[in-house]
Amino acid sequence: MGILHRTGRLAALATTGLATTALTLGLATAAGAAETPRRGGTLTFAVTAEPPNYDCHANTSFAFIHPVAPHYSLLLKFDPANYPKITGDLAESWTVSDDGLTFTFKLHPNVKFHDGSALTARDVKASYERIINPPKGVVSARQATFDAVASVETPDPQTVVFKLKGADASFLANLASPWNCVYSADKLAADPKFPEKNVMGSGPFKFGEHVSGSHWTGQRFDGYFRQGEPYLDGFRAVFMSSSAVTNALQGGQVQAEFRGLAPADRDRVKNGAGDKVQVHEAPWLASLILVFNAKKKPFDDPRVRRALSLAIDRWQASTALAKISILGPVGGILRPGYELAASEAELTKMPGFGKDIKAARDEAMLLLREAGVTGLTVNLTNRNVNMPYTIGGVYVIDQLRQIGVTVKHEQLETKLWQSAMSSGNYDMAIDFTGDFMDDPSLNLTKYLSTEISPVNYSGQADPLLDKLYAQQRGETDKAKRAQLVREFERRAMEQAYVVPILWWNRSVVLSTDVKGWEMTPSHYLNQDLADVWLAK
Amino acid sequence: MTTVTGPIPYRIPKRRGPVLTFIVQQPLGAIGLVAIVAMVLASVFAEVVAPYDPLEVNYAAILAAPSADYWFGTDAFGRDILSRVIYGARTALAVGVLSSLIGCVLGTLLGTASAYFGSTTDLVIQRFVDIMLAFPIVVLALVVVAALGKNVIGGIDVNLIIAISIPIVPKVARVARSAALSVRQMPYIDAARAAGFSHSRIVMRHMIPNIMAPVLILFTAFIAQAILLEASLSFLGLGVTEPTAAWGLMLSGNSADFYEQAPWVIIFPGLAISFAVFAFNLFGDSLRDWLDPKLKI
Amino acid sequence: MLSYIAHRLGMIVPTLIGVAVLCFFMLRIMPGDIVELKLRGDGVAVTEEVIQQERARLGLDKPLASQFVDWMTGLATLDLGRSLWTDKPVVEEIGTRVWVSLQVAFMATIIAVLIAIPLGTLSALYKDTWIDYVVRVVAIAGLAVPSFWLGMLVIMGLLLLFRWLPPIETVSFFHDPIRNLSILIWPALAVGYRYAAVATRMMRSSLLEVLKEDYIRTARAKGLYERLIVVRHGLRNALLPVITVIGVEFAFLIGGLVVTEQVFNINGIGKLFVQAVGRGDFTMVQGLVMLVAVIFILVNLAVDLLYGVLDPRIRSKA
């Protein structure tokens, strides 16, 4: 259907959470190791949107990652079979100084760009400087994540040294971001905007062609620095509307769609294609959240916000909605299952996550009475996208009705929803989070004061939360960091500017011929296709 | 323009109401009229007629096949498709009738004014009409609906109605102008002018009533087109939005995923659109034959 | 005739300027911001500064008047600017897609003519028989069925009956005609049905007019075969209104394509248009509207000229 389905049609999993995931991932790894990869063949996969330009540093959509990631190398990457372990990509090894302020990376020797030139420390430095200090006219979407960097140095052609101004617990993980493609320093020196219109990296695949609106191809790069890889001769990303994907998968016209399918679509393909497809499922690093406009009455009163959050029975939602949508796991501000996330015991003590819904609703009504709010009627601004927004919205409305709050559902086309959000022209709204990795510094951006983090559309101004955020970012001790995050979470749930509704499930359907691909909680990761091969 | 009664002696001229005359002379049109009346009644009394609340989500009956409980089956939310089709008639008729009405009123005023004032006014209006006609209907409506955004008043998106009515304006203006041009030649217009009546009085009281026949025909014809247009826009996600029941919307989204699993999700809303447009076309055609057979729309 | 053509061509320019002006201002009141959608649409915490930079880069921070001057001067040199979304020239983006849409439109026209002329003739010759009734019902239904729904039914039918779906990616006709046709024939049928219906009705009624003429009435007495011969003489006159209606309905065809391309996942200008509107890509929408207006005006001009060639009375009038 409609337009702009980027976050629209995602995937789902009917069964619950973590145990299953671990199992799925474990099995996939074992199976992958048992077979010897076969060389050759072209992988054809569907992408349900299209990248606007070719610059990694400026883009934010999965529609960019899926066709472009195979062309580039990163400094570090997430080990797909052992997520969230970080492993080297261009970096062969690295060391961190005791004070946590100096990171030294040794690069693989003999890395070549697709044009034959050598990739050295200079190129890494130039690429990161472009991200950290973009020249005029260059967009760097994730500039803010590197604001702790004091300098990038290259003592010799194989060594890159990052020096930080202060400790940053998220720094190493950010270097494994799939967005930080390493470009050629020479090309950047000639034209800083070179990567916008050209694809020239050192990844496993050379750029073939991009036909607007139709497809994107890549060919095996014979000079790839990992011996024997990639296994594929090439890949072909076909752009199609999400409603065409199920048909294409079922008919064998594409062998994969890496973002994820809704449960109904997954089942349809499974029923139609039988043992010709394999299904991978995992909890998704994405959540549906409810945002209150804290600048508007009555949501300027924390009691009202908390009352509305209390009314939502997330545990019941988890079982009911998982059957029909990609919504599923109950979680706080971090993905359930992530090591820094609240345990179920911790979570159930926070407002809105208790298992006694009756008690919670009584408390909610009491809070509303205290706040002097009765017979509340509000608008819920939502995106005009079925999965999972409409489904989540319909559920929230039903839940709030049970404490006597009347909600009108106002669904807007994505563009209009976006402008309603940033202009603060709404009462309460459904929003989402979606990141490439589990990391509090990244995942909490929707819960910080609007001043610091413009993607929190609630208009929230809470110095305490901002302070806790800064502290956890600088805390390199994991246990202490977890404590700070927990404190942040408790405060955020009590103040309830923005509250989680449910987390998502991801299910990816591939042809059984596709081997060596690993499922991760993020659809942004593990798409360089270097390890992927075709059984026939 | 009224009943034709010949001078043949053995036929006694009967005084029949225009509706009855129409039914007798245009049986096909009468069928269309009956269908339209049925639709109007169903949508006005939707609360009584529809077996379920069209918004009622039932997670226990998702994509249920047509049965005694759900005559048309249910959709991906477990909502009753029959009820949504009935309530959808309300949306379709409201948008269809209102946009056609607005388009025809504005078009008639523009066309008549153009004919009455002539010279520069005529030239300017005609240029404007030409420009508007250079946009294909769907393209114009899409651009306007995107430009205006949403403005829901009383459950109806007023901007959607405006967007659909705008492409109708130039088409009506063109027909109204040529009809008004011939009226303008009539002596009574000169008389009215001589009597010193104001321009607006002459246009409103003497010209417009005399070109009502073609405008009425256009009004009916454009209801059908407006219904189609609303369905197309809603299908594209730019018209009516969830959870409102609207036919085009029912076909959009992931309904295309259910070709095999639940074809009723696609079949019934489409049939409803076709049925409504068919009825208005049938009625409109007959109305034209009856009122003004030479009119080309 | 020449002066007539010159006059008509002269009228086109002011009309197109009007379209350009109207389109520009209509789009500028469009709510929503493409830059924000592009950078923040995926939930990434992009700073306000970056947003402003990108806006400046795209020239969206310039005053409206200056943007308008850019647009109009660009038009004069046939430069439609760059897409705000992909940053590629609008002409290039349209260029890769327009041929598919034109091919579907062309095929739909052929289908319409191939169906309309024999069916309309048959219907007129056998007026008020069951043949006539069937043709008329099929034609009226054609006006009522939305083409996008018909498209969905076609796909559903292919899937359920033949377990087959057209290939996903469109290829050029000259590269692989069979594959090309196996994809594009379906949308052509879906949008062509309405087109055929309109033309059939027109064919029937104009032929009935012709049949009323005296010389045909005379021939009627001589039996069907002779009647057919005579009809063939009258056919030329009967075709005139059919040609007109095909021209007038071309606008509908384009409208139908806008919606139907979505259903069949055709990478044509209809899909591009809907995408551009959804994103608020002003320059792209402007470019497409101009293109469609030009095509539309030219088709109507061609129809008028053809009319002039076929009917000498028009020539003298001009």
UniProtKB/TrEMBL annotation, chain B:
It is found in: Cell membrane. The chain crosses the membrane at residues 20-46, 92-116, 128-146, 211-241, 261-284. It holds the Pfam family BPD_transp_1. The keyword Transport applies. Keywords: Cell membrane, Membrane, Peptide transport, Protein transport, Transmembrane, Transmembrane helix, Transport. InterPro entries: BP-dependent_transpt_permease, MetI-like, MetI-like_sf, OppC_N. Residues 89-284 form the ABC transmembrane type-1 domain. It comes from the Bacteria. It is a multi-pass membrane protein. PROSITE patterns: ABC_TM1 (PS50928). Belongs to the binding-protein-dependent transport system permease family. PANTHER family: D,D-DIPEPTIDE TRANSPORT SYSTEM PERMEASE PROTEIN DDPC-RELATED, OLIGOPEPTIDE TRANSPORT SYSTEM PERMEASE PROTEIN APPC. This is ABC transporter permease. It comes from Azospirillum oleiclasticum.
TrEMBL record, chain C:
It holds the Pfam family BPD_transp_1_N. Its main location: membrane. Residues 98-307 form the ABC transmembrane type-1 domain. The keyword Cell inner membrane does not apply. Keywords: Cell membrane, Membrane, Transmembrane, Transmembrane helix, Transport. It is a multi-pass membrane protein. The chain crosses the membrane at residues 12-30, 104-126, 138-165, 177-196, 238-259, 288-310. It is found in: Cell membrane. Gene3D superfamilies: MetI-like. The keyword Transmembrane helix applies. Belongs to the binding-protein-dependent transport system permease family. This is ABC transporter permease. It comes from Azospirillum oleiclasticum. The lineage of its organism: Bacteria, Pseudomonadati, Pseudomonadota, Alphaproteobacteria, Rhodospirillales.
